[in-house]
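Researcher: Let's run the pair from yesterday's discussion. Sequence first, then tokens, for each.
Model: Starting with the first of the pair.
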Amino acid sequence: MMKRHSSAALPPSTGGEMHEQTTGKADKSYKRPSRCSRLCSFLIIATAFSMLACHCYDYAHGGVARVEHGRASSRRSGGSPFSDPAVPPRRDTGDRKVSADNEARALAVADERRRRELCTGQYIYVQELPSRFNTDMVWDCEDLSPSKDKCKYTANGGFGPRLSGGEGGVLQKTGWYDSDELALDVIFHDRIKRYDCLTNDSSLASAVFVPFYAGLDVARHLWGHNVSTRDAMALEMVDLVTARPEWRAMGGRDHFFVAGRTTWDFRRQVDVDAEWGNKLFRLPAVRNMTAIVVEASPWDRNDAAIPYPTAFHPATDEATFFWQDRVRGLERQWLFSFAGARAEDSKSIASNLFEQCRASAACSLMECTKGPSNQCDSPASVMKLFQSSTFCLQPRGDRYTRRLAFDAVLAGCIPVFFHPGTAYVQYTWHLPKNHTDYSVYISEEDVRRNVSVEERLRQIPPDAVERMRGAIVGLIPAVTYSDTSTKLESTVNDAFDLALWGVIRKVAKMKKRIAEGRTEDEKPEMYSWKYPLLGEGQKAEDPHEWDPLFAF
């Protein structure tokens, strides 16, 4: 289990301040009584010698008070050695300062040893890049979109503005933000900065992170710019990174970066201004790297999809557990719900589902519109809808994936998918391999043949519904990007942790292939969507029910 923060990340202890030792003074004016016998004199001398020996031992070993791990302890049952006002404090000494320094060094060595044990196989090296490749874009946030103010969404480490007051009881009072679904560049970089297993030695690193905000860069130039402008910063980044010694170790195969948009914004086929996006992912050097996106290509292996950011970013494990308990116990008045709009694309089934939901007394419909009044952009409105529903319909639209699928998981609503590209072949680092454990699948062809979604859902036994809901609630941490700014240690692996583990495992497999003399992946890229689904003994060339859906 990955630990986010160790004691190395915590503020230094102030317990190193030494307690002063207690001491006593021999009375030089003391004279023996004249009537004391020799035996009495001998006893007095012996007693004085014994006291002197104890005094010297106590002085050499730090006195009655001991300092252990920055906290004072006492041999007295009362705790502090200064609780007795009759015992005056001793003066600090050079010997005690040396002892404290030695103890501090020992603690630092022990802490570093513990950190190495925790971080072995998990070290990340962060490549140096000028700020124009990342944080400068945040400062110039007014340029990120020609039609929407993106500046507020870059606040709070990319989470956006906080939502307060619980939004009418639908949300918790803390941990909720008005997050933009395309803010992953900023969110991931902010988390990397807080990652406990960073290293300045690239030879120790399991992977190299390149802090290039590829998603924000392309967003600035998607409309009204020629291909040269769209490609400029991507080409400059490649020139800088490939010139570094860290690149030469594996030819960039251990490098990764975040491009928090869909893969199609970075795969322009030809250098024609009328074509969409830039060609970042098609550059030869970048094809060796791993690009983290919110929607990956089913036919390429140099990108990997991780969940869209939702509005929930808990700061503690307890906040996550509380939310899970809450959505697990909700009474759900609707059998199913749909948040969407009539599709303009005739091939889309969204319009069909829209009409089915509107015609059903068991379905709650939220129509998504354009503009500031769009309820689908309101975290509270979406959560209210999904929290009241047992099933949530999640068709693809103009792209395979949608953020609303993760909002459904967050609400404990069982998602109903109509194409495997919406989730099953996308988020293989975060979702179970067996999709029937947590979701319902109805093919698009069935919907086009006017199969009733309501009838299909009513056929699912109640015990199966409870099992799927339990699985969905259990997935909430895996699709959540937690707020680690409080530096509280966590035992829950969230979406960031699972993404990092996915990258580390991928790089480890590459290193193994290189060690075996196989520098290139021998698997055809056209089957990239299928590889995570294969069972023991299965081959990518074997027939699969989804082959027609991903015909290359």
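Model: Moving on to the second of the pair.
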Amino acid sequence: MDKWMLCVILLWVPLASGASLNGEGRALLAFKERVEVDPYGALSNWDEAADNPCLWFGVECSDDEKVVVLKLNDLCLKGTLTPDIGKLIDVRSIFLHNNSFSGVIPGEIGRLQKLELLDLGCNNLSGPLPSELENILSLQVLVLRKNRFAYSQSPELYDPNDEELLSSNRQLVKRRLLQINDNPPPSDANGLPPPGPQTDLNSNSNRAPSPSPSSTSPSNTKSSSPSAVPSPSAPGEIPETHEVPSKKWVIFLTVGVLLIVVALSAAYVLRYLNQKSVTIMPWTTGLSGQLQKAFVTAGVPSLRRLELETACEQFSNIIGSLSNCSLYKGTLSSGVEIAVTSTIVTSAVEWSEEYEAHFKNQISTLSKVNHKNFMNLLGYCEEEEPFTRMMVFEYAPNGTLFEHLHIKEAEQLDWAARMRITMGIAYCLEHMEQLNPPLVLGNLSSSSIYLTEDYAAKISHLEFWNEDKEARAESESSNQESIVYKFGILLLEIISGRLPFSEDDGLLVLWASSYLNRKRPLMDMVDRTLNSVREEDITELADVIVSCIDAAPEKRPTMAQVAGRMRMITAIQSEEASPRLSPLWWAELEIISQ
């Protein structure tokens, strides 16, 4: 009898533990089963014996313990997407950006009727987009760039400046999905695309090349644009022609001139009235002594939503997404470009007092950074109708450091450019370490480093708050040591030109260990595309890396010590690592303040 009871207990325990996990937990476990590579062990605490998936890494829940956010970006996960993702019926945001997911997007994703943001950018997804996406009426942002989806060569569909699909207009999404799915790329007898340039909806390879960071000499590459060649008619057909009578042209031109005159007159009157009624002030970002004083004492201005809406083309120019906000690019009337982050919360009901406290604290903290190698805060927007919480930052036009190190279409960085970028990062981190209290970045990676027009580094801290509760619980001291460690890994990535993780080599720090401990020739660790790299420099930089990634955090140097050693090695002063912009550029950056 005892043996029978023991058998029953042994059978009942796993059944009971599995039964305690709800449907969302089982759906997440199905997601985990499709993940073939998890180099950082991000999903290691996704345990089927657990009864609360809200405690799992990357999972955020509402007060009633419904999964509302799945945040697994930048983790080098490899696998396919499970159809069970459609069972997360309360999820509002899914971030799978910058991983290695392949295969198709499952049609079951159309069941997520509360989904507002879906970021699948920078993966290896392919096939046609599921038509079920158009049924998600709540979807506001859909990011698909840098994948391998079926594409169309229709010029009406592809815009080299539009890398993301926006679902704020349902008909636009529906039309685009139909065009993508109904126009597969032409193929040869083997089913492969024909040789030659192709148009890819999810690639930015058709962008005009940026100026070279290493040379100012003219480029040998030639750029071309589609020529206006009429489509050949079928045999026996007469091509269509369209003629407009000359009288109509006269009417069109007259009306056009009148409209332009009226618009210019209205703009002049509005500008005059605004100048009479409110003060116009520059967004000071610390590019001179006077500006630095004004920035610290006056803080950043509160801006009107209408101004930002106009600058960002009705918030249609989205350039990215983060865990708790969307990122837009804007252009002021003077031509100055800005970056605007907006919370994904769209209702005051969903905006808690804790969120508001974090938002105000972020503004207060970032307004005090004031460093030339930091993506400085220029202003913020806080309105109740429509509900708005936004922050406005400087814009760096040359993309991220990650793109220039790892994407072949991007402009390659020579050794001098890489060292200047590295020193800009080191000086900025040293400055943030010395603030009271120190500013600790939640994320420091090549993806968070943006490059200016002259390829100087700009560290970004664009998120509204750090949602990693464990990171917030750490002491300031251990956080600083963590930043030093991350800088060491970043320096290793810059020198080697290798990803932090790859299928062939695994974790970069493990791959480099045999070079750093001199078991292999140290120079073999250097990116092979680089020239004129001195061995003595690599030897000294390797010693810096080893000290930064020391297994004992208390033995790691401070960022001030790291910056000092790096300055001795590179001979690059802080002024040389800063963006070379005119000190009068801020005069163009005027905006009417509330």
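Researcher: Give me one sentence on the second I can quote.
Model: The radius of gyration is 27 Å.
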